[in-house]
Write a structure and sequence with these properties.
This protein is of the alpha+beta class and about 100 residues long. It has six helices and three strands; from the N terminus they run H-H-E-H-H-E-E-H-H.
């Protein structure tokens, strides 16, 4: 169960979830990810490195550019299922005091 908890901790950051959604359908450079997310290149790179280390995205290097894309179609299913579950439980989640946002 510890590895499953770690699996979910990697997804427990709003920036990483936004990056995963952005990378679901096509690969993007770090620069494109920075423009989409609106954070510094350093912060976005750190989140992308986490996603890559955990196996959620792959990186393809071409010259001085790095291209990121979701590695497994099940990640897309998981993100969409999570969105659906959260939407169905929005009031309970909004009122949950035991988990910080």
């Amino acid at each position: 169960m510890e590895i499953v908890a770690k699996f979910f901790r990697a997804l427990g950051d709003p920036v990483r979830l936004r990056l995963l959604e952005f990378l679901l359908h096509e690969e993007h450079t770090v620069t494109e990810c920075v423009a989409h997310i609106g954070l510094s290149q350093g912060r976005v790179s750190t989140h992308l490195a986490c996603l890559a280390d955990c196996g959620y995205v792959r990186v393809r290097r071409a010259g001085r550019f790095a291209y990121y894309q979701v590695t497994d179609p099940r990640v897309a299913e998981l993100v969409m299922l999570a969105r659906s579950l959260a939407a169905d439980n929005v009031d309970a989640l909004a009122n949950c005091l035991r988990i910080d946002t």
